[in-house]
Design goal:
This is Tetratricopeptide repeat protein. Keywords: TPR repeat. InterPro entries: TPR-like_helical_dom_sf, TPR_rpt. The structure is a single chain. The chain has 3 domains: about 130 residues, Serine Threonine Protein Phosphatase 5, Tetratricopeptide repeat; about 100 residues, Alpha Horseshoe (Serine Threonine Protein Phosphatase 5, Tetratricopeptide repeat); about 80 residues. The protein is built from 20 helices and no strands. Helix 2 runs antiparallel to helix 3, helix 4 packs parallel to helix 6 and helix 7 runs antiparallel to helix 8. The termini are far apart. The relative contact order is 0.07.
């Protein structure tokens, strides 16, 4: 099961069923969504939600569009806002699906279980169970109570850290991640972001030491292997680099964020041919919100012997991200 194949999306024409009769804005938004004109669809649905701000159906449909374009944090904010005002059970599955895409599997499992607990025979019960089957989390994980305000705070941290990490603003990312690790100690991904930011801000020894401690606890950690492969490559420790990159060569994750992480790591460690193969396999609609996709795909394509393609990818990224446009063409540095 591909995580993006929501039941909403698997129905004919990829729309939520039971469109309210006569709602012009919603209908126009659905029509644009059917044609995959997502920017236009969002504009129409915003009008629909302005007309009926308390209609959870409209908020959920808008969240699905954001999921389709890879804006998972924005989609989750919409769904969280719906749950603050009413118990619209479908939101829990949609949140689970989005968290799975983000690689936050603990949260994905939590929301999927919540959905099944509240709607064991619901429209998404099969999808929720399939999602749980794909999540490799220990069954004895704590099922602690959680607060939607905490989730909202987590989203703000994630959005801000994501921005700084993608733009390689390590000094800005580090204090935020340190706060995040204190407030949300169960989110393991923050530790990997922290070691990554530490390494590239000059604290290389501490970064390697921390990541080695993490991988001792979880020898199969994808993010530990990507970080350590990159760290050792930068440090010129070929044997250790090869050990970690080899651990990634036969790994083909389900989630696009994890696929992108591997592709970027291979591009950054001069594994250009394999990196190009990994980039080509990505769902562009899901990862195009990442500047790193355009930066490192263009570099990999250039060194793979495709300079024209590299330039096209780079120019597309520059149009989308002003910060990229201020950089030099990366393979000419």
């Amino acid at each position: 099961m591909q995580q993006g194949n929501l039941k909403y999306n698997s129905k004919q024409n990829n729309v939520i069923p039971f469109i309210p009769e006569g709602d012009f804005y919603f209908t126009k938004g659905v029509e644009a969504f059917q044609k995959r004109k997502f920017d236009i669809a969002i504009k129409w649905l915003r009008k629909a939600t302005e007309a009926k701000p308390n209609d959870p159906l409209y908020q959920c449909q808008m969240s699905i569009i954001y999921t389709e374009v890879g804006a998972y944090h924005t989609a989750n904010q919409l769904l969280t806002n719906v749950l603050k005002s009413e118990e619209y059970v479908d939101c829990y599955y949609l949140l689970a699906n989005n968290y799975a895409h983000l690689g936050l599997l603990h949260d994905a499992k939590k929301y999927a279980l919540t959905y099944l607990d509240k709607e064991s025979d619901g429209d998404f019960s099969e999808e929720a169970e399939s999602l749980l089957d794909l999540i490799d989390i220990d069954e004895d994980d704590e099922k602690s109570d959680w607060d939607l305000e905490d989730e909202d705070e987590l989203l703000i941290y994630q959005e801000t850290v994501f921005y700084h990490m993608e733009n390689m603003e390590w000094e800005k990312a580090i204090p935020l991640i340190e706060e995040m690790m204190i407030v949300f100690p169960e989110h393991k991904m923050a530790k990997h972001d922290y070691t990554h930011a530490l390494f590239f801000s000059g604290n290389e020894e501490k970064a390697v030491e921390m990541e080695l401690d993490i991988i001792k606890e979880d020898p199969n950690s994808l993010y530990s292997h990507t970080n350590l492969a990159l760290f050792y490559y930068q440090l010129g420790q070929k044997q250790e680099y090869e050990k970690n990159i080899q651990a990634l060569l036969n790994v083909y994750p389900i989630h696009e964020q994890q696929k992108l992480r591997i592709a970027v790591t291979m591009a950054r460690t001069a594994y250009y041919n394999e990196a190009c193969n990994r980039f080509r396999s990505l769902n562009k609609g899901t990862v195009k919100s990442h500047p790193s996709y355009f930066r490192w795909y263009s570099i990999a394509a250039f060194h793979h012997g495709e300079p024209s393609k590299a330039l096209i990818i780079w120019k597309e990224g520059c149009k989308k991200f002003p910060n990229l446009a201020m950089e030099e063409v990366p393979w000419q540095e």
